[in-house]
Amino acid sequence: xxxxxxxxxxxxxxxxxxxxxxxxxxxxxxxxxxxxxxxxxxxxxxxxxxxxxxxxxxxxxxxxxxxxxxxxxxxxxxxxxxxxxxxxxxxxxxxxxxxxxxxxxxxxxxxxxxxxxxxxxxxxxxxxxxxxxxxxxxxxxxxxxxxxxxxxxxxxxxxxxxxxxxxxxxxxxxxxxxxxxxxxxxxxxxxxxxxxxxxxxxxxxxxxxxxxxxxxxxxxxxxxxxxxxxxxxxxxxxxxxxxxxxxxxxxxxxxxxxxxxxxxxxxxxxxxxxxxxxxxxxxxxxxxxxxxxxxxxxxxxxxxxxxxxxxxxxxxxxxxxxxxxxxxxxxxxxxxxxxxxxxxxxxxxxxxxxxxxxxxxxxxxxxxxxxxxxxxxxxxxxxxxxxxxxxxxxxxxxxxxxxxxxxxxxxxxxxxxxxxxxxxxxxxxxxxxxxxxxxxxxxxxxxxxxxxxxxxxxxxxxxxxxxxxxxxxxxxxxxxxxxxxxxxxxxxxxxxxxxxxxxxxxxxxxxxxxxxxxxxxxxxxxxxxxxxxxxxxxxxxxxxxxxxxxxxxxxxxxxxxxxxxxxxxxxxxxxxxxxxxxxxxxxxxxxxxxxxxxxxxxxxxxxxxxxxxxxxxxxxxxxxxxxxxxxxxxxxxxxxxxxxxxxxxxxxxxxxxxxxxxxxxxxxxxxxxxxxxxxxxxxxxxxxxxxxxxxxxxxxxxxxxxxxxxxxxxxxxxxxxxxxxxxxxxxxxxxxxxxxxxxxxxxxxxxxxxxxxxxxxx
Length: 762
Fold this sequence. Notes:
The structure is a single chain. By secondary structure, the protein is an alpha+beta fold. The protein starts with 5 loop residues before the first helix and ends with a helix. This is 1,4-alpha-glucan branching enzyme GlgB. Pathway: Glycan biosynthesis; glycogen biosynthesis. Catalyzes the formation of the alpha-1,6-glucosidic linkages in glycogen by scission of a 1,4-alpha-linked oligosaccharide from growing alpha-1,4-glucan chains and the subsequent attachment of the oligosaccharide to the alpha-1,6 position. The active site is at residues 432, 485.
């Protein structure tokens, strides 16, 4: 029998050894010039154990000398590989491969170097749980970063959730790893982490690709490379595109409350197997979440028919509480299991691309919840968050703030952003609550925050992190979008990093949103005194690449839905909505609007229930949907409305000073031709029969769009298809149009060059 120190055995038995490979497994020893191997195994609950050499068809009995469950034996052989252990536990026997026979670490020194400096862009291919094969034996390789833990073990059904059975080895950089043979995809697991004092924490895998449906919290071994994609043409086209010069009309939605199914009808998987039903809540009894595949069948045709270019989904990363809308993430690398498996979300994205629709995902790198199975106090210390609550806690939200100054934490987030583009083929991210990241005093009173090294309130580490993540995203995935939800005057948010900007290519225009909602919520008579609300955005528009967004945040918490904000009777409310969105779609900037606005939902958004689909039985709601369908079609078909959203040459006021009538008129110019469209907006219910505006060219101007058309529920006042110019100069233009302006209406006109030329020639 071999000699081993009792302290070594005790460290294994009490799960206090940071490198169990030093004790367990097969170890060569020299004995009288012979090749001898000592095999040791710690097998809790075992009565007897044997080593099996399958190729030699030999079996060696192991003895328990130091401890009743610590077994060892010696074997004389030149090489010992892929041996097995036969274990007797009471009346039951089983045969396993010894995990401690697989000694070679899977992370290279280069991997560890990149991770420690924060630049391992695909660290998710190394950390986490990965099905693999070593020396012909299939199993799963586990690796987790927990540098301050005393010990780490893998837990699962495969070891009866006993942390003594699969103790991990700690590497130099604080990464613990272990290969466990004979387990595969579908296994649930967690990490048992002990801190210095021996306190035990059971944690989900920060790099886990799938989690159990809530309220369970175990991670699930997943193979993300099993899905076969069919969107190569889409990705290649995207790679050569510039989203800033293309139409971008985004339908924002929450997958869990767009529509529900019945819990009495379990969803079917493609192979005919049933998938577990994930019910919504007691507030919506009998309802279940639709799966990603069911959403693909129902949502995609709906959005495609409406003409939106992109879908933006509120966070789909795993989160424990439905009511957080997904903004309190515990599984950054796991699409939520509420709607199915990761491959089902891949199918959803794939189908979107097949139908010409891009996918944008809300991403939350600013904070994370305190749930015990998540990132909080991960290894018994403040690993991912700041230890000082003045930097590490959002008291208003009850969440923790990432420590962006720590390389490995920054690496976790940068790689996570890349992960969604790489593995799930998404087309963009919308980064939540950027302002909360950029300012150290965000939602904090005096004395509750710490200044930066220069005494300022700016979070310099967070700004550097945002620059890093955006630079990295666009280096790997040209043609995608990175959108900042940023509500302050922080400069150059959407400027490239090489100019000192944060590197986003779009920023939500929160100022425009507030001005519009304030303006449209007031009685139209008072709008004459607030013309600045309509025009002010063009004073600063060219300072950033703006996206105009009317999002979920504007239809919750007592704010009413969009149509409920509008003044007047029912007809005027619908007319105001059409007027607002027609102005939005003709104003420079890309567009985002939240689900339900397209048909005039009256109630606020409720995360626990469906949209008010029953409203489609009423004609005004049908007509409003038709309005959005035609508006999107026009927007996408007229390059003047999108090719120069961010260039001064793309926009020109005709008249913005007619506050007496609350009317504005302007021109949008195309980048690649001399085409332009003329837009006239009347923001009051008072029509105008002879309203004259100046235009730059002679000819016939076709009325492309009239928000007051009968088919949209309007009064059908207009210009009989278009108007000829008069040789009457106005508004610094040589010609003018005498127009009929409908009440609460927006007109879009375009010079018909062919008709004009025919008449001129005749």
